[in-house]
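Hello,

Following up on my earlier ticket. Below are the four sequence lines again, exactly as submitted.
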Amino acid sequence: MTAPAATPLSLRIRAAGEVPGDTVDSAGNLILSTQTVAALSAIAVPLDVKARTPVVRQGDEAEFVFLIRSGVIKAEHQLEDGRTQIVAFHWPGDLFGLADHDLYLNSADALTDCDLIRFSRPALKALFLTEPGLQGDFLVEAIAHLRLSQRHLLLVTHQRVAKRLAGFLIECSQKPECYDTQTGVLSLIMDRTDIAAYLNTTVESVSRMIGALEERKLITRVDARHVRLDLPGLKALLTR
Amino acid sequence: MTAPAATPLSLRIRAAGEVPGDTVDSAGNLILSTQTVAALSAIAVPLDVKARTPVVRQGDEAEFVFLIRSGVIKAEHQLEDGRTQIVAFHWPGDLFGLADHDLYLNSADALTDCDLIRFSRPALKALFLTEPGLQGDFLVEAIAHLRLSQRHLLLVTHQRVAKRLAGFLIECSQKPECYDTQTGVLSLIMDRTDIAAYLNTTVESVSRMIGALEERKLITRVDARHVRLDLPGLKALLTR
DNA sequence: CGAACGTTTGAAAATCGTCAATGTCAGTGG
DNA sequence: CCACTGACATTGACGATTTTCAAACGTTCG
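Thanks for your patience. The regenerated structure is below:
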């Protein structure tokens, strides 16, 4: 679960979604020049957080940007009306810490033990002046996030909870961290409440829908946190 | 059919949302250096489109990025299952033309007559090499769009259509292009179908909800496309 | 063991989508 | 000038999915 880190700091910035050829490696990570990595490393501070602990609070002064080396982070936004919407799950290689007016826009909590790296925003800004190439990398990242965000929107706007859930399971199955391609078993890192908050529904509906999908033989429950997926079946459900 | 262009090209790039002081002017537009504007102008091509005409099609090769000088654009995404979700309305100063794998991710249609400027993507990329500052401006823009996108998500995930509609009206009231602060009258430039597609509901529900809001005296219909808003009341509804 | 938490299940109410019909308005052509 | 047409908007009735409220069930952990 922890990064091997052959070099003192291996910075894997995942370009969520896909980008044209020459900016990412085979694993979908940005290719950073040696000097860029060196410059970034100089201002990088490793930070380990345990599962179920907050990393940043919505509304706090945004001092840092975070990069995930291992673990999963949930980003949630509290509305004025008391609702809490999960805006994204962040995976290894993701950057997080979106800010507006120098305040964090969302709260971020560790779902699992996490191995993070944090960069001071001012220091990053300064780096941009001396390392122009770095800006481009962050631009690619920002646009990738934009696509991800849109994908989440499209997921959440499916009218039937069944479709939203199917889409969510498919999404998770694309994360090597929690899907075993061999057995077809998906490990759910988050609890029902989090799934509900991400899919914009209720715990009860999530629970019922899991049951419904199981009856339709699209998934098989191993236990509450482990399900075997019929990916083709789920994808068919989604496009129907 | 051609741009009026008082100056050869006045490039207003709106930093959607808000950004810290020194990168935007009082109107919320990015401050571009003279040489940046000159460089951009060199590759800028004015383009005028009439209301209700397509600008780009989802899936087409993404050759350009567009900047809106005047008019309103709707960006919509066709799902495999036939659903069409409006992903954003773009206003003057906005950039649009999000791409993935060099293909447009969404279709864009002009809602009103539009005065656009288009930049060739390869030319832009080339510019980034010679004008490092420009990349930063686009980074700011991308992040601003990210915030906007999240706001749309939060809007759409309100459970009650009433709340979504209220949020939408408030959002529109922040566009000087369609809200008259003096009279409090909002001009809806999009039809009910588009509003429904943006709010993830149906034409009928939108229509009914407008009626419901009117009964609750939160809005007054002048005609189908013009409503007087009780902004405080609408905001109260949203946070309840 | 018991408490706390997460998950599941049940039953009832409510919102919303669907289908269908009607209404309104602008533009067209006789 | 008026009927006609088509696009858009509204209204009604119905059914269905989903939320809500409650309670039971299982696990984990002190």
